[in-house]
Structures are given as structure tokens and as C-alpha cells.
Amino acid sequence: MDPPDAYSPPRMEPVPAQELHPFLRQLREEHVSFMAELTAFEEAVLAVRKTGYTRDADARLRHFFHFFDQEFIPHSRREEAALFPLLHERMIADGEHGRAAEPATAIDVMEDEHAKAMQLAAVTLNFLGLAFRLPDEKSGMIVVDAALEQSKNLIELLRLHIFREDNVVFSIARRLISPAEFDAMQARTAVAGKSN
Asked: Is residue 11 part of a domain?
């Protein structure tokens, strides 16, 4: 008995983008640029593995971490502040949670993945920064290899995370949250964005 494929969860009911509230549609559209950046990042990681650490690879890796800091982290914070609290509450009320003493929902998984992604990005960036400061070249290459392995983990985590949000979480949100509540989330997010 094999566990289900992560990309084919048993109760997946994806909703076409045009049927999503504009608030959810915007979050999903941001995922498109994230996926493009992840692909470019993966190509840079593979290039380093194949041809070594070059200036071009360094620039591409730095670009990804800048994008991650400027786009992914604020996106995650918007989800955690605007969407996740109400959706978590509604999932518990609807019985979509674990049976532990403290009921866990898909939102707990999403928030945990946000935190793990930030940790992996920080570890990778720190490894890359350390690698070229080590006096021993062999040690530096071992640290680069560790950074590339963490990069691979980050790419896999983010791809699966985005898949889960787009195909599972947003579908559940559409079912459990009213259009008026999404309108309020959108308005609060717009106000918070103007004050930043």
C-alpha cells in the first residue's frame, strides 16, 4: 500500500481561476511568477552543479533570493494575516481538521511550510556566503554542495506548497468563505499595502 501521491491528493477539487474571488485569484496569479522564478533558480542550481560556481550563476542565485525576500515573504504574510485565520476557523467548524486535542488543519501545514521555506532560504544563503570565506577551497566546495542540496529542498517544498494552495486550499476557501468576507479581506490587504 503506497501513500497517495502528493500531487494527487484524494479529495482535490481544483477550481478554475475565473471562478475564484478576485482576492484568491490575485494570490494564485502571484504564484505564476513564483513558479517562473523557481524554474530559473533551479536552472541556476543545476548550472552550478554542472559547470561550477560562476559570476553568472552567482547573479542568478542572488536574484532569486532578492525575489524571495521582496515577493514571497510579503505574499506569505498577506495570506497569514488576511486569509488563513478565518479559513482555519471555518475548517475546524466544518470538521476539516485532525482529531488531536488541538485540531490541526491544512492552514497549519501551509504556515509551517512558509516558515520552512524561509528557514531553507536563510540556510542556503548563509552557506553560500560562508563558502567563499573559508580559507580551504575543498571545505568551501563542501559548503557550496550543502547549499545546493538545501536549494533543491527549497525548490521541492515551494513547488508542492504552491500546488497545495492553488488546488486544495483555495478550493476549500471558496467553499467556506463568503464573497463579502473576501471583499473585506481584499480591502484590508489594500489598506495594509498602502501603509507599508
From this structure: no
Reported pTM: 0.89
* Structural domain includes residue 10: no
- Give the CATH number for residue 118: 1.20.120.520
**pLDDT per residue of the chain (196 residues) written in tens, 0 to 9:** 554 566 666 566 778 888 999 999 999 999 999 999 999 999 999 999 999 888 999 999 999 999 999 999 999 999 999 999 999 999 999 988 888 888 899 999 999 999 999 999 999 999 999 988 998 989 989 999 999 999 999 999 999 999 999 999 999 999 999 999 999 999 998 877 665 5
Q: How far apart are CA 175 and CA 155, in angstroms?
A: 29
Which of 74, 94, 111, 108 minimizes the C-alpha distance to 174? 94
Q: Say what angle helices 106-131 and 137-164 make with each other, to 10 degrees.
A: 160
Asked if residue 3 belongs to a domain, the reply is no
Contacts of 50 (CB under 8 A, 6+ apart): none
Domain extent at residue 65: 19-195
Q: Is residue 1 part of a domain?
A: no
User: What 3-state class would DSSP assign to 15?
Assistant: coil
